[in-house]
Each structure stands twice: as structure tokens, then as C-alpha cells.
Automatic annotation (TrEMBL):
<dbReference type="GO" id="GO:0005524">
    <property type="term" value="F:ATP binding"/>
</dbReference>
<dbReference type="InterPro" id="IPR013098">
    <property type="entry name" value="Ig_I-set"/>
</dbReference>
<dbReference type="InterPro" id="IPR031660">
    <property type="entry name" value="TOPRIM_C"/>
</dbReference>
<dbReference type="GO" id="GO:0003918">
    <property type="term" value="F:DNA topoisomerase type II (double strand cut, ATP-hydrolyzing) activity"/>
</dbReference>
<dbReference type="InterPro" id="IPR003599">
    <property type="entry name" value="Ig_sub"/>
</dbReference>
<feature type="domain" description="Ig-like">
    <location>
        <begin position="68"/>
        <end position="140"/>
    </location>
</feature>
<comment type="function">
    <text>Control of topological states of DNA by transient breakage and subsequent rejoining of DNA strands. Topoisomerase II makes double-strand breaks.</text>
</comment>
<dbReference type="Pfam" id="PF07679">
    <property type="entry name" value="I-set"/>
</dbReference>
<dbReference type="GO" id="GO:0000819">
    <property type="term" value="P:sister chromatid segregation"/>
</dbReference>
<keyword id="KW-0799">Topoisomerase</keyword>
<feature type="domain" description="Ig-like">
    <location>
        <begin position="239"/>
        <end position="317"/>
    </location>
</feature>
<dbReference type="InterPro" id="IPR006171">
    <property type="entry name" value="TOPRIM_dom"/>
</dbReference>
<dbReference type="Pfam" id="PF00204">
    <property type="entry name" value="DNA_gyraseB"/>
</dbReference>
<dbReference type="InterPro" id="IPR003598">
    <property type="entry name" value="Ig_sub2"/>
</dbReference>
<feature type="domain" description="Toprim">
    <location>
        <begin position="429"/>
        <end position="546"/>
    </location>
</feature>
<dbReference type="GO" id="GO:0006265">
    <property type="term" value="P:DNA topological change"/>
</dbReference>
<dbReference type="InterPro" id="IPR001154">
    <property type="entry name" value="TopoII_euk"/>
</dbReference>
């Protein structure tokens, strides 16, 4: 046993190794590399001065699934303000590999700007920089058995790192050799390679993405044999654009122009944005511009076909958005030391710690030279800031949105968790996501007839967002996304392809229970898009289901009672049934229209109402991307035209229609849902939003006018409130969406300021919006029973009725 000379500036440590046996050296693998219990600054001093040091290696090789047992924490002496401190924790026994959690006063800690956590083998290091009085507290560490160690090490550019290699067994003498990318032998002239007894390390003072990224192999050999380990280093770097084209291009009209843009360095993945005259090129904003944008790893092409004079301009390419540096970002990473003499100086206190004399009162003027700025540019501060700007949003998003699997969740309001969620039986559990609180009530009424241990309920707060077109700020601020990720136990960037990864979820199924109308299909599609965008492997595991309910029920006394699960199916039956008008028809606008008895019937017949979404092939992926990505607008138009032809032309031609939710259907593919159900939303939305050429009305407006015409002469001269007219018109015209949706329609029809209605149909009395706020009617709903308007319609005869709001 050989001990190094103690040094008060470093930890005194010791190698425990046996020298009596003669065996082949056995290296510690990636997940069990020995870490050095000293700071990087100490390591650099050691390299320059060749001071010998030693380490305590507390490794107990236990290969069974044994819980880790902590070794004693190193004691921490008093520290001065502004210094850096490294806390070390290691285990004395237990299975490997491990990961560690650090806590301060019982609160879990994570990587921040001042603190980092680095887990290596049986050691964990918590580094706290620039400490102050707020950092005083009790720090603790908890080891957790980790069965899935990382296969590579991700580091930031310009950072420092020590790559260690040590033997776990074997006899001396040991010879170490380092290789990069399996063929290039590293020499001590190119790299700082430290070799001491049974350990060798490569010290990177300042990592570079081009030179240091690669696969490193450490070979250890003696006269009895050899062994090796391999580690991959990935240096995260901000991209740099290279010029592949001249700054000015002269092209002839009608030709095709390809403009390339690439980066010469930087880490993937990358995204490119193209601009013309500082305006971003987006197809949906520039429908007349004929161009295509194709991106592949480090290269992006802007193709403009059929050039014309209007295409002239300044085109620019930006990678990963436009990064702007703020003065604070530079100031926080730069120290400037000034040595000068100032006359008549003034300070903020008697201790003279801070001078408050303004620079204009100096006897001289400090002018920084160009050489100073050029030398400052070379220290790498701007590259470091750009790299931090790029990865900061993703880091914040991961810290805010990535949850930890818990057996019970009590912090999410309105969540009714399944009793077995988060337990060993979590794969058998199903989370039912409902559309609002009213649907939540229906589920509570019906779920009593099934096993409550396996079903959880969570109502969404509103319509889901399209995550493909939302930015990180919108996603991080969306409460539904945050709650859904935590309830399901999802982890970003995780691939759910194995049974082990699926067991990490709190629920094995996600059941979407929305209204059966086109709006419900829209919400269902948005949730599918959310799962597909972040976890595309999850949709291949039959993870998503839908609970369908009748949209229309018809009955003829006791002899006939039938439920329809789509409007197209009902319309087909109505055309084939000559006496369909004699049947009693009930339209279920939403789940709230079902009674508690009906809700129990739905859950008792789970086989009929539970539909599983099935993944067949890449066409399912393409269908989802088609309707939710703004990059495929032209293909989306063709898809919608085909869907409309399918809806209208087949019934006219007498062709048989294949309805999506047939009684024998137990599952449907994602493509079937997009083409046959989700398309109904776009068709209905166009009908509701676009006026018809024959009368200029939308369906809601037409129903209001029709009801006013049908009123008798006595009623026509009576005053009526907006709320009353909306309710009467909805009942008389069989308006399926509720009278609250007719109220804004009536209010807008009563507006008479410039820019609203060409023909005055209503004479108003009361508040119906101002041109100042664009006629916004939201704030007027509360007074819908206090204002008046008068209806004037001339169709065959003049009718007038006073409308009171």
C-alpha cells in the first residue's frame, strides 16, 4: 500500500488494492467509472505541478438486486462567501448502476445555473458555485438503483471535464492506452493524459465540439491480458452558418432557383427559418409564393419555382430562431479588473467596499481599445452564452413538465385517481379524459357499475391546443398538458417500446370521452396529436382509446329504439326510411344530455362503446401530420375536398356508405379516424363559418330570421329580450347547439355602426357593441336580458318586432 503525501488543499485519499495476485486487469464500465473527489481547479494544478494524490475507492461489486447502502458523507468545513463547494456521496454496498437524488432541507434539488449534480458509478457529486447565506441548510443524498444507465455523456461546449478510467481488479504493472473513434491513438502531446498506478484520465480544460466529440476507448494491459471500456462524448454546441452561395444572385424570369443554407458546426437537431425582406416565409401567410423548404440535418434548401419580378428581395436563413444577446447575459459571465488611481473618490459606506463616484467625474476618460475587444471575443464567452440560450428553454420545460412516478397524486384538482394507478398493476388502469365538468358528472354516474380500482377520471379545462404549432411558452403554460403528463407518468424524450418502459407509466390506457359530435372529434384529434408529437412510439402500443356515445336516438313507441353514433349514419337511415318523420328523434349535443340511467347502460355495454385506436403503418403517421401540421396546407385542402365528396356525392349516387362506428367494430386505425370522423369537424366548421351565396346567411343567422318571420303579427310587434329570442328560436328551429350560441349571433346582427351589417335587420335599443373595440360582444352576454333591439325584415311583407336585451 502506498500513500501520497497529504496536502491541506486536497482531500487525502488512498487506493485499496491487492498486489499479491497476478490476473488480467478488469476495467470499470461507463456506468461504474471511478470519479475523482476533487475540483477541476485542483486537477489542473495537479497536472502542472505533478503533485501525487490518492483516492478512497469504496466499491463493493454486488451483482444481485440489492438495495444500496450509503457510506458516510464527507464532513464539510466552514466555507467563505463566494467560494465553490463540492459535496460527495457514495455507497458502500449494493447493486449497480445507481443514480442519486440530492435534497436541501427535504426539498429535492436539480441542475441550475449555480448547481450541478453528476452521478458516476457509486459516487455522486453536488457542486454549488458562488455560495452565499441563502445556501445554508441540511443537504442529503439518496441513491436509487438505476437499471438503464446512459450510453453517452452529454457536455456543454467550453466546459471542463475529466474522463476517468480505472481498473476494478487485476495485478500490476498496468499500461494504459487511449483511442478516439476506435483508430486514432491519443498521445500526451495532444491531450492532457494523467496516469497514476491503477488509474488513467483525460483532462479536458475547454471542450470543443469539433475536436472533442467522439468515442473514446481506454485499453489496460499487463503481461496476463488486456481489457477495454468505451465512452461516447457528445458536445452540445450552437450552430454556425456557412456560406454556400454568393450574396447576390441574378436569375432569369421563369427559372428555378435553389438557395442552400448549412452549418459548419453545432449539435443536432437543428431547425431553420427562412426570411424574405425580414418577413418569415410561411406558406399559409404567402399563398401566392411558389416555393418549398426542405431540411436535412445540417442543410436546408429554399426552392423557388417559376421566378418572377415579385420574388426579388433579400433572403436570409436563421438556424434555431433568432438568438439575441442581452447585456445582463454578458455581464453575468464576465469579470473586468481595473487598476487605476481616482482622485476625490466617494464610497457608499465607511468600509469602502463600493465606489459610487460617477465616471463623468473622473479626471480621465477610459477608452477601450479594439485589441481589447478582439481578445475578449476569443475567450469563448459568446459561444457559451449562445449555447446557454439554446438549451435553456428545453431545460426549463423539462424541469417544469417532467414528473416523477407517484402512487398517489393529490395536488391536481378534479382528478379522481384510480386506486391501482402508479402501483404494480398500473398497466391495467385506464385514465378517462372528459370534455369539461358536465361530462365528468356523467362518467361518475356510470362508472359505478365497473371496477373503480382500474379507472381514473380527469376533466379537461377547455379545448386542447395544437402542440405542433405552439411554442414552448404556450406548452409550459397549458395546465391541461402539465396535469395530463403528471397523471399518466409520461417522460419527455422517452421511447415506450418495451414492457419495462410501459411499466413506468401510471396508466396503461388513455380513454378519451368527448361529445360524439364533430367538435368532440376535434378534441379527440388534438389529444392524439399531442401523444403522437411527443411520444410516437406510444401510439403503437394501443395506448389511446375512445369511449363513444350515441349522438342521436330515435324511437317509435316500444317497437323500435335505435341509437346512431354519427350524423352521417342517421342521415343515411333517414333517407332510407319513408316515415322517418313519425319517429321521435332526440339529439344529444353533449354527454350532459344523457341521464344517469343511460350512463350506466353505456358502461355496462363496454364492448360496444370502447373503441381502441390501432396503428397499422406509416399512413397513420402521415394522416395525423397532414391535418395538424401547417406545412402541408395544399395536401390538406385536397384531403378536405375528397372528404366532402365522400359525404355528399355517395348518398346522391346511391352508393353504400361505410360508417366508422359499426356495432361489430372494436378498433379503428388512426387513418380511419382522420378521414371519416375528424374530417366532419372541418366540414361542419366551414358550414357554420361561411355564408351561403343565395341569402348571405350562416345557419344560425338563418334560423333566427326564419323564426322571426314565422311569428304572428301580434308577437311581431311585441318587445322581446335577446335571451328570450335565442331560446325561442333554438326550440322552434331545432337548433342543436343551445341558445347560448345564438345570443352572440343575434347581438352581431343588431350592430349598426360602420363596417358591420350592410342591411339593417334589427333596430337596437341598448348596448350592442362599439366600433371602438371591433364590436366585441363577449362582455354583453351578462346583460342579454336588459337591452332592446327591433327587428325589421322585408320578405313578402314587412315585419317588425322589438327585441329587448
Amino acid at each position: 500500500m502506498r500513500n501520497a503525501t497529504p496536502n491541506p488543499l486536497r482531500s487525502f485519499v488512498e487506493f485499496n488494492r491487492t498486489t499479491t495476485t497476478t490476473t488480467t486487469p478488469s476495467l470499470s464500465r461507463d456506468e461504474s467509472q471511478t470519479l475523482l473527489n476533487f475540483s477541476l481547479e485542483d486537477a489542473f494544478d495537479y497536472i502542472e505541478s505533478y503533485i501525487f494524490f490518492a483516492l478512497i475507492i469504496l466499491i463493493s461489486f454486488v451483482h444481485s438486486d440489492e438495495s444500496p447502502v450509503l457510506a458516510k458523507l464527507y464532513s464539510i468545513n466552514e466555507q467563505t462567501r463566494g467560494s465553490d463547494i463540492v459535496l460527495t456521496c457514495n455507497v458502500a454496498k449494493g447493486s449497480k448502476p445507481l443514480r442519486f437524488q440530492w435534497f436541501k432541507n427535504g426539498v429535492e434539488l436539480s441542475n441550475t445555473g449555480r448547481s450541478t449534480i453528476e452521478n458516476k458509478d457509486i459516487f455522486s457529486f453536488f457542486t454549488l458555485r458562488n455560495i452565499d447565506s441563502n445556501d445554508v441548510g441540511n443537504y442529503s443524498s439518496k441513491p436509487i438503483l438505476n437499471k438503464f444507465p446512459a450510453s453517452e455523456i452529454n457536455l456543454s461546449i467550453n466546459s471542463s471535464y475529466i474522463l476517468p478510467c480505472s481498473i476494478s481488479s487485476g495485478s500490476t504493472s498496468i499500461f494504459f492506452e487511449w483511442y478516439k473513434d476506435d483508430h486514432k491513438k491519443l498521445s500526451s502531446t495532444e491531450y492532457k493524459i494523467v496516469i497514476y498506478d491503477t488509474m488513467s484520465s483525460i483532462v479536458f480544460k475547454r471542450l470543443n465540439s469539433n475536436d472533442d466529440t467522439g468515442t473514446y476507448t481506454c485499453n489496460a494491459r499487463n503481461v496476463h491480458g488486456t481489457d477495454s471500456i468505451t465512452t461516447k462524448l457528445v458536445i452540445q454546441d450552437a450552430p454556425r452558418i456557412s456560406k454556400l452561395f454568393s450574396t447576390e444572385l441574378n436569375q432569369s424570369e421563369g427559372s428555378v432557383l435553389n438557395i442552400p443554407c448549412s452549418v459548419i458546426s453545432g449539435s443536432t437537431p437543428l431547425s431553420f427559418k427562412w426570411f424574405k425582406n425580414e418577413q418569415e416565409l410561411l406558406r399559409h401567410r404567402n399563398p401566392e409564393l411558389s416555393y418549398q423548404i426542405k431540411t436535412d440535418n445540417f442543410l436546408s434548401f429554399l426552392t423557388i419555382s417559376k421566378l418572377k419580378a415579385a420574388d426579388s428581395g433579400n433572403y436570409s436563413c436563421i438556424k434555431n430562431g433568432k438568438e439575441k444577446l442581452k447585456p445582463d447575459q454578458i455581464r453575468n459571465r464576465l469579470w473586468v479588473f481595473v487598476n487605476c488611481f481616482i482622485e476625490n473618490e466617494t464610497f457608499d459606506s465607511r468600509t469602502k467596499e463600493m465606489m459610487i463616484l460617477q465616471s463623468e467625474n473622473f479626471a480621465f476618460k477610459c477608452v477601450l481599445s479594439e485589441k481589447f475587444f478582439q481578445s475578449t471575443m476569443k475567450i469563448g464567452i459568446f459561444d457559451s452564452i449562445l449555447s446557454w440560450i439554446r438549451f435553456k428553454p428545453q431545460t426549463e420545460m423539462d424541469e417544469k413538465l417532467i414528473p416523477k412516478k407517484r402512487s398517489k397524486i393529490i395536488s391536481i384538482p378534479k382528478l379522481e385517481d384510480a386506486y391501482d394507478a402508479g402501483s404494480m398493476n398500473s398497466l391495467e388502469c385506464t385514465l378517462i379524459v372528459t370534455e369539461g365538468d358536465s361530462a365528468h358528472t356523467i362518467v361518475n354516474s356510470g362508472i359505478s357499475v365497473v371496477n373503480r380500482n382500474k379507472f381514473g377520471i380527469f376533466p379537461l379545462n377547455g379545448k386542447f391546443i395544437n402542440v405542433r404549432e405552439a411554442n414552448k411558452k404556450q406548452i409550459m403554460g397549458n395546465i391541461d398538458i402539465k396535469c395530463l403528463v403528471e397523471i399518466l407518468g409520461l417522460k419527455y424524450n422517452m421511447k415506450y417500446t418495451t414492457e419495462e418502459s410501459m411499466k413506468s407509466l401510471r396508466y396503461g390506457r388513455l380513454m378519451i370521452m368527448t361529445d360524439q359530435d364533430p367538435d368532440g372529434a376535434h378534441i379527440t384529434g388534438l389529444i392524439i396529436n399531442f401523444i403522437h408529437y411527443y411520444w410516437p412510439t406510444l401510439i403503437k402500443q394501443n395506448f389511446i382509446e375512445r369511449f363513444i356515445t350515441p349522438v342521436i336516438k330515435v324511437s317509435n313507441g316500444s317497437s323500435f329504439n335505435h341509437a346512431f353514433y354519427s350524423l352521417a349514419e342517421f342521415k343515411d337511415w333517414k333517407q332510407k326510411t319513408w316515415n322517418s318523420n313519425s319517429y321521435h328523434t332526440r339529439y344529444y349535443k353533449g354527454l350532459a344530455g344523457s341521464s344517469p340511467h343511460e350512463a350506466k347502460e353505456y358502461f355496462l355495454d363496454m364492448k360496444r362503446h370502447r373503441i381502441t385506436f390501432r396503428y397499422d403503418n406509416k399512413e397513420d403517421d402521415e394522416s395525423i401530420e397532414l391535418v395538424f401540421s401547417m406545412e402541408k396546407l395544399e395536401a390538406k385542402k385536397q384531403w378536405l375536398i375528397k372528404a366532402m365528396e365522400e359525404r355528399y356525392l355517395k348518398p346522391e349516387n346511391g352508393e353504400k356508405q361505410n360508417f366508422l362506428y359499426n356495432p361489430e367494430k372494436q378498433d379503428i386505425s388512426f387513418k380511419e379516424f382522420i378521414y371519416k370522423d375528424y374530417s366532419e369537424y372541418y366540414i361542419e366548421d366551414n358550414i357554420r363559418s361561411i355564408s351561403i351565396m343565395t341569402d348571405g346567411f350562416k345557419p344560425g343567422q338563418r334560423k333566427v330570421i326564419y323564426f322571426c318571420i314565422q311569428r304572428n303579427d301580434d308577437d311581431a310587434n311585441r318587445e322581446v329580450k335577446v335571451a328570450q329570442l335565442a331560446a325561442l328560436a333554438a326550440e322552434f328551429t331545432s337548433y342543436n347547439h343551445g341558445e347560448k350560441f345564438l345570443m352572440p349571433t343575434i347581438i352581431k346582427m343588431g350592430q349598426n355602426f360602420v363596417g358591420t351589417n350592410n342591411l339593417t335587420l334589427f333596430q337596437t335599443q341598448g348596448q350592442f357593441g362599439l366600433r371602438l373595440n371591433g364590436g366585441s360582444e363577449e362582455r354583453l352576454y351578462g346583460g342579454s336580458d336588459e337591452s332592446y333591439l327591433k327587428l325589421l325584415v322585408i320578405i313578402r311583407k314587412r315585419l317588425s318586432c322589438m327585441l329587448i336585451k
